[in-house]
Write a structure and sequence with these properties.
9 strands; nine-stranded mixed sheet; 29% strand
Length: 240
């Protein structure tokens, strides 16, 4: 039998076999999910943090790949540390972006806090350090964070010894696509479902300023979304 025969058999089995889907109370690890048609279902909040203009960045420095690499490393390091610090789990790195999942009673507030602090890291740490190290380079780090909440299915994909989890469901898809809505200084985008579950401290500043502006996502049947240009310091810890 050749590869075509093997793949024909395996794909047929994927479509034929009944799924074993179990409810999960915590974010599963790859070892918690079998390679066959087995999945873990959970309600959670997904955050995607995406470095903007990365293709232009790479194209601008073809003979100095270390410079884009430093930008990638600085952004993803800050985003990952903040996601973990705010209670999220890192579930994927994809080139210039990172995916985190939050599962708790305060998961939407935790994710928004992480988003504001990632924006704070870009504004107050990454760009100042970049300018200090490379004063003659005209480049400013820009980014976007998208957040959605709802039902997710974790399934294991790949082949033996080379596999990982794939996260299927609206939150993962929408969180990633919300990043493409970034405009001007509006770095954080959330769905109405996330906004509706936020505490006041994640909606309005202590002096009464609104963090969010409501918009319509025309590509998704005018879905209600919210955008914000706000940032918090990475050590900012407002009470819920």
């Amino acid at each position: 039998m050749g590869l075509a025969d093997d793949l024909t058999s395996e794909v047929g089995e994927i479509f034929r076999l009944t799924w074993d889907i179990q409810d999960a109370k915590v974010i599963p690890d790859p070892d918690d999910v079998r390679l066959g048609n087995h999945g873990k279902k959970l309600d959670a909040t997904v955050l995607y943090a995406d470095l903007a203009d990365s293709t232009d960045l790479v194209n601008a420095y073809p003979t100095e790949p270390f410079f884009p690499a430093e930008i990638y490393k600085a952004y993803l390091t800050c985003a990952a540390r903040i996601i973990r610090e705010r209670g999220g789990e890192i579930t994927a790195y994809d080139g210039d972006r990172i995916m985190g999942i939050f599962k708790s009673d305060t998961q939407n507030n935790d994710a928004v806090r992480a988003a504001f602090q990632i924006n704070g890291a870009v504004t107050k740490i990454i760009n100042p350090k970049l300018k200090a190290q490379y004063p003659n380079r005209d480049f400013t780090v820009r980014h976007a964070v998208g957040i959605d909440t709802g039902s997710l299915l974790a399934a294991r994909i790949g082949v033996r010894n080379y596999n990982d989890l794939v996260w299927v469901g609206r939150p993962a898809n929408y969180a990633a696509k919300l990043c493409s809505l970034r405009v001007d200084d509006y770095a954080t985008w959330i769905t109405g479902e996330v906004f509706d579950q936020l505490y006041r401290s994640a909606k309005v500043s202590s002096d009464g300023r609104e963090y969010w502006e409501q918009r319509q996502w025309t590509a998704r049947n005018n879905l209600k979304v919210y955008r914000s240009s706000w940032w918090w310091g990475v050590d900012h810890n407002p009470a819920y």
